[in-house]
Amino acid sequence: MPATPPRTGVWLIGARGSVATTTVLGAAALRAGLAEPTGCVTEQHGFPQEHLPPLGSLVFGGHDITDTPLPKRAAELAASGVFPERFLAPLEDELATADREIQPGHQGATTAPQARTADALSADLTAFRDRHRLGRVVVVNVASTEPPALPRPEHHDLATLRRALRSRPDVLPPSSLYAYAALTAGCPYIDFTPSTGLRLPALDQLAGELRLPYAGSDAKTGETLLQSVLAPMFAMRALRVRAWSGTNLLGGGDGATLADPRAALSKTSSKRSGLGRMLGRPVEGEVHIDCVPSLGEWKTAWDHIAFEGFLGTRMSAQFTWQGCDSALAAPLVLDLVRLVAAAHAAGASGPLGALGFFFKDPVDCADHGLAAQYARLLRFAADPGAIS
Fold it and tell me: Which residues form the Myo-inositol-1-phosphate synthase GAPDH-like domain (predicted)?
C-alpha cells in the first residue's frame, strides 16, 4: 500500500476573522461532502490538480489577537447570512479543533526587540508543524488592512534588518513581522491583504536566501475582478476610456478598518494599481470607500466608466457588484494554499507571479488582464517547479 502523503498546514493570520472562519468552515464542509466547491478555481473540471495537496489534507491553525471561539464566530456569520446555519452543528467539532490551534497574536506596542516577538511567532509555527507531522505549513495573512508602512533604511537590506530587529521594537509593521516569522520558520507566505507584508526588499532577500516561495498581494474578489475583465475589453476594442471612478460601501470589520483614511489608502492604491496598465494610459477618476455598518458582512461596489467611440462620440458604462466578501474570499484562500504548497514542494522560491490571477496588485506580474493571468496560472499548475 502506498504511503499516505504528508498533510499540509494552513496558518491564518487573523484566524478568528470573517474570511478565516469561512475558510475553515468551508474546507470542513467540502471534506464532509456537505457543499460543492463553488468558487474554488483549482476544483474546476480540467484544472491541473496532480501537484496540489487534497483539500481534505489541510490542517488549520493561526494567530489572532481576539478570543472569540471559531464556533461562536461561525454562528455569528451564519446569522448574518454568510452561509446557511445548517453547516454549524455537523461541523462544530472541526471548528473547535481548529480553534484550539489558534495562538495569541502580535499585540503591537511593546518595548521588547522585535526579534524576540518574531522568534515567539515562529516557534508557534514550528510547534504546529511538528505536532501534526505536517509536510509543510503555508502562512496566509487575512488580518485587517494596515496603513502603508513608512519606509526605513533597514527595509532594504537583510543584514541591516536583522541587526535592527535585535535592538528595536518598531522596525517592521505587524504584517511584515508575521511574514519574517513565517520565513524564519521555513514557511511559504501569502499576502491576501494590501498590507505591506512581504513586499520589502529585505524580506524578498530572506525568501531567496531560504528558498521559499511567496504570493500576493490583495486578493481581488469583486470590483477589481470585474475591472480586470472590462479594461482589457476596452483596450482590445480601441475604445478610449476617459475616466473610471468607483465607490465602495462596506460593512463589518473590513468597513470599520477602512473607515480609517490611512488604512483605506492601502486599499485604494491597490485597487487602482493595474487599471492604467490594462488601458495603456492613465485615466481620470478615484476609488472611494465608505463604511456603512448596517451592511454587515456585505459590500456594494459601483463603477462609472466614461469612454469615447468612433468620431469622438462620448458614451458611458456602469456596473454594480454586490456580494459577501468572506464567501468570495474563502475559496481563493484554499486555492492559493494548494498552489503555493505545490510550488514549495517543487522547489520554487521567490515571488510567484503566476498566481497574479488572484490579486489586485500582484508581485512579479506585469499583466493585469484576467484572461492572460489565467493562462499563466494553468501553465504554473501543470508544472509548479518551472519558471512561468
Answer: 222-326
Out of 56-60, 182-186, 225-229, 383-387, pick the least confident: 383-387
261: CATH: 3.30.360.10
CA dist 219 and 23 (Å) reads 14
Residues 6+ apart with CB under 8 A from 312: none
Burial 314-348 (b: 16+ CB within 10 A, else e): eeeeeeebebbbbbbbbbbbbbbbbbbbbbbbeeb
In this prediction, residues 152-178 reach a mean pLDDT of 94
Looking up residue 64, the CATH number of its domain turns out to be: 3.40.50.720
Classify residue 149: in a domain, yes or no.
yes
User: Is 349 found in the same domain as 244?
Assistant: no
119/172 Cα distance (integer angstroms): 14
Same domain, 121 and 172: yes
**pLDDT tens track for 269-315:** 766 778 888 998 889 998 888 888 888 889 999 999 999 999 999 99
Contact status, residue 217 vs residue 189, Cβ threshold 8 Å: no
Of the two residues 235 and 297, the one the predictor is more confident about is: 235
- Is residue 175 assigned to a domain? yes
165 and 256 share a domain?
no
How much is the average pLDDT of 152-157?
92
Contact between residue 164 and residue 39 where contact means Cβ atoms under 8 Å apart: no
Q: Which residues contact 110 (CB under 8 A, 6 or more apart)?
A: 117, 169
**What average pLDDT does range 310-323 have in this prediction?**
95
Looking at the fold, whether 175 and 249 belong to one and the same domain comes out as no
Residues 64, 61, 168, 264, Cα dihedral to 10°: -50
